[in-house]
Fold these 4 entries.
Entry 1:
Amino acid sequence: MAGGRGYPSVMSSTVEELVAQLRDGGSRVTTARRLVLTALVKGADHPTAEELLVAVRALAPDVHASTVYRNLEELERLGVVVHTHLGHGAATYHLATEAHGHLVCEVCGATLEAPEDLFEAMAEGAKRRLGFELRPYHFAVLGVCADCASEAEA
């Protein structure tokens, strides 16, 4: 399930489609794994592991934290989930349904999802000049958003 440009990819966005895709690929789908997928599909954008644990426990209070963390690792290994560092806080997670990078404003903390093509020239240059394959979905690019930049100019 690996996509182009170093991005994992998954073709589905509903829990049942994801379960079917995992089973088609030969992976087991446990109750806990289904709960983690449900929390990812129906929850907030880019939740932390702790936020996913809270969401999973809202559905099944007896699920252990280690079960959620282990399933996140396995789903990432399978290319279904991507984790991203959006600045200095905990890693966040999202389904790998579409490749995108992240831009985070150092002034106000706003996070913008950047489409894959925004990083294409940088990725091509790093590959051509350094033989290095970028994976820009893993870390956010920090800077200043348009609103904060215009306020600073005023």
Note: The longest strand covers residues 100-105.
Entry 2:
Amino acid sequence: MVSKRAALYVRVSTDKQTVESQVRELTAIAQRRGWEVVATYSDAGISGAKGRDQRPGLDTMLKDASRGRFEVVMAWAIDRLGRSLIDLLGTIQTLEAGKVDVFIEQQSLDTTSPMGKLLFQITGAFAEFERHMISQRVAVGIKQARAKGVKFGRPRTDPKTEERIRKALAKGDKGILKIARELGVGSGTVQRIKAEIIVGA
């Protein structure tokens, strides 16, 4: 086995669990493969359903991967990196962009080998197909709903309220936020009407 600089990523969902057993097992695997563990990233008590912005260990690991600090990331199981296929692929693609391989023990995913890279590419193709199919189903659903008279987007403010907004804007003694608050509408509505007045002036 070629020597590689390896990073461990470990995660547990609750504070009652510990990451030590994952670290111990992955370190032993790295030693058997002749890999040097140069960093360990941990998210303890954080659900895998949370995004990168809520998982500081994952975020730091991905940033260090882009800096070339290591050549392979090791995790105990797929659900340690992400709960959904699309989320997982996004993480692995970020690593791949930094030329960092992935080793996941429980699912025998190892992109350091040609077979592992092929498996990942096939999985990625299925995920892309799934995204495409979801997009198509949504588009068809919207088209069918529109054919039945369903309207999409925010409902337009009633004419009486719009006229009150115009009058309040014309006085010029109140800001957009105050007018919106007093008339019970969103500030975006007031901004839209103000823009219409300016264009029509």
Note: Residues 114-147 form the longest helix (34 residues).
Entry 3:
Amino acid sequence: MNAGKLDIIVAPDFDLALTLDSGQTFHWEKTDAGFAGTIGARAIYVKQRDDQLFVSKGRAELCSKYFALDHPLADICASFPPDPAMQSAIAFCRGLRIIRQPHWECLATFITSSMKQVAHIRQISQTLRHRFGEPCSLCELTVYAYPTPHRIAELDERDLQACALGYRAKSLLATARLINSGEVDIDQMAALPDDELRARLCALPGVGAKVANCVMLFAYERLRAFPIDVWIERVLRQQYFPGRRRMTARQLRDFAAKHFGEHGGYAQQYLFHHARKTTPRRLSPRAS
């Protein structure tokens, strides 16, 4: 990619590679000195040099919003509790930001993520994009947008199972059809308060508490949302409740809400990425 054909964004306190590898999004491809992917239906190339981002011409505003460059990251990190586990995660994840993802793409991706490791979620996302998404030209490259609810809704369940979705195919298809029919409007749901938004998301096929909180955090920018998967449950139990045998899911949720506060979603993402990258493979949980 020719840097002369790219717009420049000042991006202090941001690590592009770390953010894209943190388990929020699963389709960006390393290419040249940067990454190629899509934001919605728009093809994007982005690379970083120190505190500057070089992005596809005319995409600066879109990328600034997507990568949440307006989040006061230093203040967010300073608000975290001073316990050793949290401070280690902050040091390891410096520059990681919570991405603002398109509602449908994020919802659909996390419906397909249940009991899957990050590498498998990425493979499913890429397969769906290549088979059913719209191709987008990016200089000499072709990238693929995530298939729309309309495109998914017109498929057969077997089409999705062929993309390694397994039992998740039924849930993804049912949710896409609800959205495509107009029975559910996930964009209008952005106006709902947290508890109602979570309840509405959990009413969708294939969406439980963990997926709902991921979607709230990564698509609806509800920075208090604290998804608890097997990684985070292990971190909470080992780092904050060592030796305590019985901790219910409700107790863990209540602790996280009080301990990590209004930016708990950032805390969760830092703890998650730090654990995923530093835990020996033989001790890693099976699913993300």
Note: The chain has a mean pLDDT of 93.
Entry 4:
Amino acid sequence: MSEISLGSWLTYSGGVEADATRACTEAAFDAGINFFDTANVYGRGAAESAWGEILSARPRDSYVLATKVFFPMSDDPADQGLSPAQIARQIDASLTRLKTDHVDLYQAHRFDASVPIEDTIEAFQKVVEQGKARYLGFSEWTPEQIRTAIDIAGPGLFVSSQPQYSMLWQAPEAEVFPLSAANGISQIVWSPLAQGVLTGKYEPGRPAPRGSRFASDTMAVSKDLVYNDATLEAVQRLVPIAEEAGMSMPTLALAWVLRRGEVASAITGASRPEQVHANAAASGVDLPDDLLAAVDRALGDAPVTGPVLAPGADAGIKRR
């Protein structure tokens, strides 16, 4: 699948009009992007429905489609999590919205500490056995949760991990990356541009611009850790490095992610076709060792190296 993928978290779930969603999706195909990542909770089905309308017009083997399950889908307290009943219900609902008979990758959006892990594993295995998903993955699981799942079901259960990862959020490198690599699990990372901070558009000493993601407490993830003057100053030190290398800041940040660890694809968001093409340009970009060293020096101690869980992740494990 393509090294750069297109996600739909804050865009195609309702933040971007239908015409722009279609334009960005078409731009993705034009740019060589064939991997599309969504989730049932994005707009509570809106993002899946948008792509169902658009992608169903193309041959099913021309793209790789991933979705996720975990977060609440209604005000009903039972309408969430990774119980066997919820997984069975939500995979069918997702397939209906996506207008397809299968997804290529079905992912646990977070870990559910309220359900015995054996029940969750068996439910996911059943989804694959029924042909509703080709492969399975997880997002923001702790090393302990990953080890437990592997101990129960073997290393072949999951093929992918989806952690937050960027120049500014390097926490998965400590344990998740090596544990995954040892068990044949690759990484599909989210927020590789640190929610736009690594574009260099935010200036230290100034509040987040009105309308930006960091101006909203509900849209920004890990805001205090990636949006502060020390971090923004470190990012500004990257700007001349990118310029000297003849690339944009997004290209530098995305290329950096793709050359670290076992990263199969970096999920990017876009509200305009030109953003899609700009992000796709990072695929295949080589970063020499001296440039990587310069990046490390510029960042200093700004990166979060963990162990830190993403919002919504739970460290517990329930057994039968």
Note: The longest helix spans residues 229-244.
